[in-house]
Write a structure and sequence with these properties.
135 residues; mainly alpha
């Protein structure tokens, strides 16, 4: 349970820091347009902190971590979210600074989304197996 709590807490801290980074970078560069930096904050708080707070409650009810599948889902999900957010940060920072963005960044972000989806699938398979009476 502590691992889930620490994950939620870490994503909360990263979410707040990313919001501060977005505000200060755009203010420093007099940037008023749209960039992916504006949604990094939301992604970290919703897909990171809130997701793991829900997982924490589900852990209490169904002991999700008793299955080896839990560790797989945990690390795959975190890798996918980390890769996705990192690419959003890079792309958004380049946009604010007026630099040319590479198509590779979007491709890697797409891979991050795929890994994130695999983590979610593993999570739901594990959850389904841990719910009593569900076969």
């Amino acid at each position: 349970m502590k691992k889930i709590y620490y994950a939620a807490h870490t994503y909360m801290i990263l979410g707040v820091i990313s919001g501060l980074y977005y505000r200060e970078l755009t203010k420093l560069n007099d940037f008023t347009g749209d960039s992916q930096l504006g949604v990094v904050h939301t992604h970290l708080l919703a897909l990171g902190m809130l997701f793991y707070l829900v997982v924490l409650a589900l852990e209490k009810l169904f002991t999700l971590s008793a299955s080896r599948l839990f560790n797989w889902s945990f690390w795959v999900y975190n890798a996918g979210l980390g890769l996705t957010v990192l690419m959003m940060l890079i792309h958004g920072t380049q946009t604010v600074l007026g630099a040319e963005t590479s198509a590779a960044i979007s491709g890697i972000a797409g891979l991050g989304h795929i890994v994130l989806t695999v983590g979610l699938i593993l999570f739901f398979i594990n959850l389904g197996k841990r719910i009593p009476g569900k076969n």
